[in-house]
UniProtKB/TrEMBL annotation:
Residues 437-566 form the C2 domain. Its EC number is 3.1.4.11. Residues 264-311 are annotated as: Disordered. It catalyses: a 1,2-diacyl-sn-glycero-3-phospho-(1D-myo-inositol-4,5-bisphosphate) + H2O = 1D-myo-inositol 1,4,5-trisphosphate + a 1,2-diacyl-sn-glycerol + H(+). The keyword Nucleotidyltransferase does not apply. Pfam families: C2, PI-PLC-X, PI-PLC-Y. This is Phosphoinositide phospholipase C. Residues 349-435 form the PI-PLC Y-box domain. It is found in: Cell membrane. One of its GO terms (biological process) is phosphatidylinositol-mediated signaling. Keywords: Cell membrane, Hydrolase, Lipid degradation, Lipid metabolism, Membrane, Transducer. Residues 286-308 have a biased composition (Acidic residues). Gene3D superfamilies: C2 domain (2.60.40.150), Phosphatidylinositol (PI) phosphodiesterase (3.20.20.190).
Length: 584
């Protein structure tokens, strides 16, 4: 790593920065302070003082930066820091190259730094929905390819739908090498636990077969809980490099079938009118069109079950004991569904529409529930094109598993990707303390309350570079250089949410804006900084030039190199912005 970073820094000016990219005034001023310290005490001391005092880096991060620069030979700041025997002054060009390097001077930390020893329910978890689908939610193919991609991006909750195959002797989804792919890629991006949520539509004999498949494939990676049910979920730290299963236990499955049969008898008097397997797997539009009463009795497509009158406790025993996070379908009234059982930790699944109703009428109950239990939220059934919903309502009410369709590239998915860049991108983000506290009279955080400004974020957009390396010369305009502008804003609670933009810089591959924006924040702990570059076009829709979303609570202060990503969240090789972040 040190050698790569060293070579990167040395050739940065020649290869990664355009010849006409000049340091803005703030960089020149910072260089003067850096040069003054370097002249008297040496470049290593000068750099240490600069990144500590001006950039706010911790002692550990200061050591990491110096270590990255210590592994090679060459010119510029790395040579001066590591090999100069006497006090020396790095050039402005060397200093600018260092600041404009996303690897050496990133906007957020790349290491896990939060306490990972709290119960599982104290963390937001990067969660996928229908992880096996390659496209839309109705008729796209099932494959392990989207699952592998999700795992490579740090997703920590994978959902699998389990259905009997056409012969009724095996299980769709699990039989095609899917479990082997999950085992191979489970910890390629994060060593923290991988959760597999199983949406179970199986008969007991196939449940037993699934239990065998899981144990044989995952072996010692599979976590088997010691108690049934668990009073409290283990911590992510205690479950490192383990695979855990979440689904409805067979007994709950039996009870659900009984309740469903009774409900159908009451409504129509005919149990045979239950929906068939195909309609259960696809969308039940009624799940998101109820009358909004204080009930949760509509069909939940993610928790639906196939009718099985031949329930057999013995064949289901091996299956049940593998379940760490026991799930259940909401039944009856909201308040009943959200009751906290001191002797049992569980998972509840709600659609985005059900969540909206629950938070509108029982927001405090939702937050209390999520302090001990797990709440999973999933897209409503009408999102057939694999679009997503705004995750902020779920996060502000403590929902841990905000399940998203990963097949598209909409704004909501960008927010999700940005949120989980926090904590080193490990897929687990510790909840803010205010979501875990309960007052003496049972009071909890109220996302709808009018709150005072807790912190103000100042963002300065200096300049951008790298488009000429990553795009063709005619990509934005066939006859002239592009006309770039940057949109900067906050996604968060309603009071904090806003978007602003810079002026348009015409005919420049290396635009210099040098504009500052101020964002008062009432809940900075859940705020996301949105950054998007557009190319202005008078006659057509503006062209996309890159984007990123960064967790505000993780931003490093000072002048930073911010790498941009494409619409799908893939980082460009060269495109980046030079920005400054300050909190007041």
């Amino acid at each position: 790593m040190g050698s790569y970073a060293y070579k990167y820094c040395m050739c940065f000016t020649r290869k990664f920065r355009s010849p006409d990219a000049q340091p803005p005034p703030d960089v020149r001023a910072a260089h003067l302070a850096f040069a003054s310290a370097s002249a008297s005490d040496g470049a290593a001391h000068g750099l240490r003082r600069f990144v500590s005092q001006h950039q706010g880096e911790s002692p550990a991060d200061v050591d990491r930066i110096l270590a990255m620069l210590s592994g090679g030979h060459g010119h510029g700041i790395a040579r001066l820091v590591t090999r100069s025997p006497a006090p020396s002054v790095p050039t402005l060009d060397d200093f600018f190259a260092f600041l404009f390097s996303p690897d050496l001077n990133p906007p957020i930390a790349h290491q896990v730094h939060q306490d990972m020893s709290a119960p599982f329910s104290h963390y937001f978890v990067f969660t996928g929905h229908n992880s096996y689908l390659t496209g839309n939610q109705l008729n796209s193919d099932s494959s392990d390819v989207p699952i592998i991609k999700a795992l490579q991006r740090g997703v920590r909750v994978i959902e699998l739908d389990m259905w009997p195959n056409s012969s009724k002797k095996n299980v769709d989804i699990l039989h095609g090498g899917c479990l082997k792919s999950i085992k191979e890629y489970a910890f390629c991006a994060s060593n923290y636990p991988l959760v597999i949520t199983l949406e179970d539509h199986l008969t007991p004999d196939l449940q037993a077969k699934v239990a065998t498949m899981l144990t044989e494939t995952f072996g010692d990676l599979l976590f088997i809980p010691s108690s049934d049910p668990m009073k409290e979920f283990p911590s992510p730290e205690a479950l490192m490099k383990r695979i855990i299963i979440s689904t409805k236990p067979p007994q709950e499955y039996k009870e659900f079938l009984k309740a469903k049969a009774e409900n159908n008898q009451n409504c129509s008097g005919n149990i045979d009118d239950l929906p068939d397997q195909g309609s259960l797997r696809r969308i039940d539009s009624n799940a998101d069109e109820s009358d909004g009463k204080d009930e949760l009795d509509e069909q939940d497509e993610d928790d639906s079950d196939e009718d099985d009158p031949k329930f057999q406790q013995d064949t289901a025993c091996e299956y049940r004991k593998l379940i760490t996070i026991q799930a259940g379908k909401p039944k009856g009234h909201l308040r009943d569904a959200l009751k906290v059982d001191p002797d049992k930790a569980r998972r509840l699944s709600l659609s985005e529409t059900q969540l909206a109703k629950a938070t509108a009428s029982h927001g405090a109950d939702v937050i209390r529930f999520t302090q001990k239990n797990i709440l999973r939220v999933y897209p409503k059934g009408t999102r057939v094109n694999s679009s997503n919903y705004d995750p902020m309502n779920a996060w502000t009410h403590g929902a841990q598993m905000v399940a998203f369709n990963m097949q598209g590239h909409d704004k909501a998915l960008r927010l999700m990707q940005g949120f989980f860049r926090a904590n080193g991108g490990c897929g687990y983000v510790k909840k803010p303390d205010f979501l875990l506290r309960t007052g003496p009279n049972g009071e909890v955080f109220d996302p709808k309350a009018s709150l005072p400004v807790k912190k103000t974020l100042k963002v300065k957009v200096y300049m951008g570079d790298g488009w000429r390396m990553d795009f063709s010369k005619t990509h934005f305009d066939a006859f002239s250089p592009p006309d770039f502008y940057t949109r900067v804003g906050i996604a968060g609670v309603k009071a904090d949410t806003v978007m602003k933009k810079t002026r348009v810089i015409e005919d420049q591959w290396v635009p210099v804006w040098d504009e500052e924006f101020t964002f008062p924040l009432t809940v900075p702990e859940l705020a996301l900084l949105r950054v998007e570059v557009q190319e202005y076009d008078m006659s057509e829709k503006h062209d996309f030039g890159g984007q990123t979303v960064l967790p505000v609570w993780e931003l490093k202060q000072g002048i930073r190199a911010v790498p941009l990503h494409d619409r799908k969240g893939v980082r460009y090789k060269s495109v980046r912005l030079l920005m400054r972040f300050d909190f007041v």
